[in-house]
């Protein structure tokens, strides 16, 4: 199974200090930063776009921006996000009818490609062909659109289904994830953990990052005994 990666969601950070917030997370042990891009169409809210990501990538050298594109036309933003320094471009299966050419376009711009499914979308929409082409699969554990929502436990079954089908793929969970439910996520087989409120809302974000990471590491030891 692929290794544990913690990706704090900056949606829960102080946007006025975004570069400092990202640096603080990296110092605290975060490997990726989860950048929630919302367009007011695919989801009702608007957050940030390429101009802001571009400032962050200039301000935080070496940052890995895990861009979660909650946008209606994901084809439209590949070049802008690549130019802004995005490292991973994750689009929603619900937002496109043609995922394979989109994955190719993302790879052409030297970004990793992710495919996301919302709570009501079955894991079966991710066909073997799509999973083989993609670098990461994202199972949403809340309805996309805002931070601080309650974790939907029923979505975890989809993580188990995908992990059984794709033992080597990065599988990310996003939404309401924190120390209380990390074991559930980790045992089901997710290895890329997004958390906004649980990390930024904590007294000690580095402790939460360490807890999340060790839960994934421990679950993997149980799944793959040596
Ligand atoms: C929801 C976003 C999530 C969210 C996670 O639409 O995709 O990334 O910010 O935040 P928490 O961990 O607070 O649910
Ligand atoms: Zn997200």
UniProtKB/TrEMBL annotation:
<feature type="binding site">
    <location>
        <begin position="145"/>
        <end position="148"/>
    </location>
    <ligand>
        <name>substrate</name>
    </ligand>
</feature>
<feature type="binding site">
    <location>
        <position position="9"/>
    </location>
    <ligand>
        <name>substrate</name>
    </ligand>
</feature>
<dbReference type="GO" id="GO:0046872">
    <property type="term" value="F:metal ion binding"/>
</dbReference>
<keyword id="KW-0119">Carbohydrate metabolism</keyword>
<keyword id="KW-0464">Manganese</keyword>
<feature type="binding site">
    <location>
        <position position="36"/>
    </location>
    <ligand>
        <name>a divalent metal cation</name>
    </ligand>
</feature>
<feature type="binding site">
    <location>
        <position position="34"/>
    </location>
    <ligand>
        <name>a divalent metal cation</name>
    </ligand>
</feature>
<keyword id="KW-0862">Zinc</keyword>
<keyword id="KW-0413">Isomerase</keyword>
<dbReference type="InterPro" id="IPR026019">
    <property type="entry name" value="Ribul_P_3_epim"/>
</dbReference>
<feature type="binding site">
    <location>
        <position position="68"/>
    </location>
    <ligand>
        <name>substrate</name>
    </ligand>
</feature>
<dbReference type="InterPro" id="IPR000056">
    <property type="entry name" value="Ribul_P_3_epim-like"/>
</dbReference>
<keyword id="KW-0170">Cobalt</keyword>
<feature type="binding site">
    <location>
        <position position="68"/>
    </location>
    <ligand>
        <name>a divalent metal cation</name>
    </ligand>
</feature>
<dbReference type="Pfam" id="PF00834">
    <property type="entry name" value="Ribul_P_3_epim"/>
</dbReference>
<dbReference type="GO" id="GO:0005975">
    <property type="term" value="P:carbohydrate metabolic process"/>
</dbReference>
<dbReference type="InterPro" id="IPR013785">
    <property type="entry name" value="Aldolase_TIM"/>
</dbReference>
<keyword id="KW-0479">Metal-binding</keyword>
<comment type="pathway">
    <text>Carbohydrate degradation; pentose phosphate pathway; D-xylulose 5-phosphate from D-ribulose 5-phosphate (non-oxidative stage): step 1/1.</text>
</comment>
<feature type="binding site">
    <location>
        <position position="174"/>
    </location>
    <ligand>
        <name>a divalent metal cation</name>
    </ligand>
</feature>
<feature type="binding site">
    <location>
        <begin position="196"/>
        <end position="197"/>
    </location>
    <ligand>
        <name>substrate</name>
    </ligand>
</feature>
<dbReference type="GO" id="GO:0006098">
    <property type="term" value="P:pentose-phosphate shunt"/>
</dbReference>
<dbReference type="InterPro" id="IPR011060">
    <property type="entry name" value="RibuloseP-bd_barrel"/>
</dbReference>
<protein>
    <recommendedName>
        <fullName>Ribulose-phosphate 3-epimerase</fullName>
        <ecNumber>5.1.3.1</ecNumber>
    </recommendedName>
</protein>
<dbReference type="GO" id="GO:0004750">
    <property type="term" value="F:D-ribulose-phosphate 3-epimerase activity"/>
</dbReference>
<feature type="active site" description="Proton acceptor">
    <location>
        <position position="36"/>
    </location>
</feature>
<comment type="similarity">
    <text>Belongs to the ribulose-phosphate 3-epimerase family.</text>
</comment>
<feature type="active site" description="Proton donor">
    <location>
        <position position="174"/>
    </location>
</feature>
<feature type="binding site">
    <location>
        <position position="176"/>
    </location>
    <ligand>
        <name>substrate</name>
    </ligand>
</feature>
């Amino acid at each position: 199974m692929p290794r544990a990666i913690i990706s704090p969601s900056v949606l829960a950070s102080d946007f006025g200090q975004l570069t400092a917030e990202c640096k603080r997370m990296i110092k605290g042990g975060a490997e990726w930063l989860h950048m929630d891009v919302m367009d007011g169409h695919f989801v009702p809210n608007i957050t940030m776009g390429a101009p802001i990501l571009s400032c962050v990538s200039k301000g935080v050298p070496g940052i890995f921006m895990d861009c979660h594109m909650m946008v209606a036309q994901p084809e439209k933003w590949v070049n802008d996000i690549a130019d802004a320094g995005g490292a991973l471009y994750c689009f929603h299966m619900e937002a496109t009818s043609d995922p394979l050419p989109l994955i190719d376009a993302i790879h052409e711009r030297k970004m990793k490609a992710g495919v996301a499914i919302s709570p009501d979308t079955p894991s079966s929409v991710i066909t073997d062909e799509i999973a083989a082409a993609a670098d990461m699969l994202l199972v949403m554990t809340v309805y996309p659109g805002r931070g601080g929502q309650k974790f939907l436990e029923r979505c975890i079954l989809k993580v188990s289904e995908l992990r059984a089908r794709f033992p080597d793929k990065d599988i990310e969970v996003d939404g309401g994830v924190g120390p209380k439910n990390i074991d559930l996520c980790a045992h089901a087989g997710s290895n890329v953990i997004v958390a906004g409120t649980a990390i930024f809302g904590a007294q000690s974000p580095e402790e939460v990052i360490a807890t999340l990471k060790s839960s994934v590491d421990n679950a993997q030891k149980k799944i793959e005994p040596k």
